[in-house]
Amino acid sequence: MMSVEDLADLANHICPLHVIIDAEGRVVSHGPTLLKVCSEESWIGKPFFDVLDLQRPRAVQSIGDLLDTAGSKLHFQLRQPPHTRMKGVLVPLPDGQGAFINLSFGISVLDAVRDFNLTSQDFSPTDLTIEMLYLVEAKSAAMEASRQLNLRLQGAKIAAEEQAFTDTLTGLKNRRAMDHVLNRLLNSGRDFALMHVDLDFFKQVNDTFGHAAGDAVLQKVAAIMVDCTRKSDTVARVGGDEFVLIFEGMLDRNRLSDLANRLIARLEEPIMYGAEKCRISASAGTVLSSSAEAPEAALLLHQADVALYAAKRAGRAQHLFYAPHFEAEMLEQDSKSA
Q: In terms of CB atoms within 10 Å, which of 33, 39, 161, 236 comes out highest?
């Protein structure tokens, strides 16, 4: 007849979640997987009901009652955290020596694998749990690969969109981005101000110090414009030395004049390129757009351009708001030039 020791040794290989109890209900052996479950503190010598709480059948009140449940499905819960639920089937040992109880995690297996860091070695080789774990692992790996791919695709899409709307030299928005913002504001009926800024004396910088110096000046100009505006404002480079600033929700002429004058003053400060001082200025023209008027984008850009060149005609380094009479003055000036 096989001894309890021989039975335990055999069960360790084919039923690593088993428990063997004696006639008094004390644990005399248990499978290696349960060492992980009980945090490496062996259950051997402990009363069975001190380590596992029998949830069903509820009629079982003693070890004698437990031994009478041979062949029935038993429902347990670990008494120590995390109180994992388990299932089991009891088989009495010969000559009243006690019982062999084979345990499983049932639907709690995924939680158990996570909580106790279990691997395939902690289950019977023929346990369908292994197949399920392989499927879960494969699914998890596939989902993670899909997630990583989606993140890369999303990142590439964002980068492409950002590049498509960004001026590569200055990092400001480009004309395409300006058109997008302008159309969005017009379609939503939002009030805003549009300021067209053109650098004065920039050609002299390029002619005197070279295009590398001109590029450095444009980058400094971009930084100054960002510093003088709000985060919600749009600053776009729309040409070589031309910029458009869009101020959403701002129609206050005094605030806009102060901002334009502050910007012009900042741009008149010498910009260093190595040991050389690059001197520029700026002229600006602004047009206001209210929801009551709902003008077209092309008209607003034209009116801001008209105000800008009125500022240049007035002596440069100035800011003017669009006025209808600027149109006639510009036509008159053009006719004289012709």
A: 236
